[in-house]
Amino acid sequence: MRRVMRCALLTTCLLLGLAPATLLPGWAWADPPRPAPPPPPQAPQAPVPALARTWPVGVRPLVLRAWEPPATPYGPGHRGVDLAAPAGAPVRAVAPGRVSFAGRVAGTGVVSVDLAGTDLRTTYEPVSPSVTKGDEVGAGDVVGTLQPTSAHCPTTCLHWGLLRGAAYLDPLSLLPPWLRHRGPSRLLPVLGVPLPA
């Protein structure tokens, strides 16, 4: 009897022009999904030129938190460096450029400067801007004052960022070694010159 039923079902499907697979659920006859193609290889990033002529706050400020690049574009990390400074401290452009943004983002004052002759952009926050979009600034020019906040750091700090397009980079790489150096200067002895009495 079962055999007769199967033959009748097959004959009915053939007469109606239906494939037997149409009677099965979709998952039973669908092709398995193809794996996603691998992402295209990333082009190597150009090195960051050491073109900063000053720190954005103070003279060799304490780095409270260093740059920690995220593993993925939206992954956890620290997309800049936090520099200790008192509220009200002047915030300076580290290199010449043009202000591309000066305003508030999510309630926080931000200044962005496109660095002259490069594809790099620095950001400074939380800042009360003293510049406006389109202003030309030189290295060391004041772009605003540091605002007090406890949301990002345990004490007042400047979050200094560096971007190339949408990619975050280490802003400390803008500093030449002589400006990045911490600690007292050390002089080597000059041979053949008597010590002062």
Automatic annotation (TrEMBL):
Keywords: Signal. Residues 1-30 form the signal peptide. Residues 77-171 form the M23ase beta-sheet core domain. It comes from the Bacteria. InterPro entries: Cell_wall_metabolism_enzyme, Dup_hybrid_motif, M23ase_b-sheet_dom. Pfam families: Peptidase_M23. GO terms for molecular function: metalloendopeptidase activity. The keyword Aminoacyl-tRNA synthetase does not apply. This is M23ase beta-sheet core domain-containing protein. It comes from Streptomyces alanosinicus.
